[in-house]
Amino acid sequence: MVDYTLITAPVIIDGTSHDPILDGAVLIQDSKIVSVGEASNISAPEGSEVKKIEYPNSTILPGLIDSHVHLIGVGDGRTGDQLEALPDGVLAIQAARNARKHLHSGVTTVRDCGARNTITFDLRQAIENGFTPGPRLVLSGRPIAIVGGHLSYFGQPATGVVECQESVRQLVKEGADFVKITATGGSTKTSSPLLPSFNLDELQAIVNEAHKFQLHVAAHCTSTEGIRRAFVAGVDTIIHAMFFDPYGKVFYDQELVDQIAEKGVFVNHNLAQTLELVEKMEILKKDFGLSAEEEIELENAKYFNSLREIWFENMKSSGVTLVAGSDSAWSYYPMGEFYKEIIAHSDYGMTAMEAIISGTLDAAKSCCVDDIVGSLEQGKNADLVVIDGNPLEDIKLLANVLDVFKDGLLVDRTN
């Protein structure tokens, strides 16, 4: 019987240091990391049975953590309103498929930011029972929305302080790990992305109730006023962080951003989703041409990407902790390609190491699971991904996954 597993590679990124470990090793016992460091300094106790796995010309890093997914999404351009037309059973099958794809791509933990009814809770139970493979799931269950608000069709609309408190308690009962609020409208047809949804006292009721149960809160915010209200209410992560006034004009509030940075609120800016949309539309334009309406959509998407690049750079320089979260499989962004979000963080101003940490330890902190995952440290779960080559030299190599380990076990990626 094997007592330990010793995995070696020329480069190890442990997630805690901005300097890689060269000629390194990770020693694993059962599901936990025993030690990490230079291979010459790492060994199992004398007399132990050790399984050695060598990865030449490769890099070992912590299992990736996608802080924002929608497991029931498809990623083929359909909207949430269209997803709503599908039965729960169909969405559950799609969620299982997405979970497997993300795990196989090196993502060992995901935070699902909203699904219908109890689909993701059921999926987690299926994964834990070994019925289907998947990453570790950090779940909100249904996002809390106003009546007719963004994602309200997923099943948790609330009006007034009492219903907001009741919604949190119901989600706690069902096993939610955190609470997701749609603090502004979004792509849902009956909502407005430029307007806040909940009143401030309602937001504060949700946050206070969640914090009482030691749950963190993430808020979808696509307007400056939505961000401000969510921040004042005390949310822990701001998702999207789009800076528009109620009329669609850019309104970047530097004072608010400085407050977000000072308080340590995380921001998940979601870059790759609209980059993916532009890429797909450019291909469509080249191959088939675009209609006048599609040309306008493409130009708007390009303009929006330019704004997000500016906002991202400004928030980073202001000291905001920007965490990687894909928002897949929403819009045209399929699951299994989280590395694109990390690459986008690098393209928009982070170093390769900073970008990788944004999708590992910083993402783990945002999801409140950094005590067990997010870095390669003694006592943490042995979740790691092996990359062919060195992503510190070329961040795009994150797409070249050789192997994935979850809880110390090699993931079977053949099916």
Would you give an account of this structure?
- The chain contains 12 helices and 15 strands.
- It has helices at residues 80-83, 88-104, 119-128, 160-174, 200-212, 224-233, 254-263, 272-288, 292-317, 339-347, 352-358, 361-366; strands at 4-12, 21-29, 32-38, 50-54, 58-62, 64-69, 107-112, 136-139, 178-182, 216-221, 237-240, 266-268, 384-388, 401-406, 409-410.
- The strands form 3 sheets. Strands 1, 2, 3, 4, 5, 13, 14 and 15 form an 8-stranded mixed sheet that branches.
- Strand 7, helix 3 (119-128) and strand 8 form a beta-alpha-beta unit.
- The longest helix has 26 residues, at 292-317.
- The protein starts with a strand and ends in a 5-residue tail after the last strand.
- The model has no long low-confidence stretch (mean pLDDT 96).
- The coarse overall form would be globular
* Residue-averaged pLDDT: 96
SS summary, helix count:
12
Q: How much β-strand is present in the residues?
A: 15-25%
| SS content category | alpha/beta
Write down the Rg.
21 Å
Order of helices and strands: EEEEEEHHEHEHEHEHEHEHHHHHEEE
Which runs of at least 5 residues are low in confidence (pLDDT < 50)? none
Q: N-to-C terminal Cα separation, in Å?
A: 27 Å
Q: Specify the biggest β-sheet.
A: 8 strands, mixed
Helix content: 25-40%
Number of strands: 15
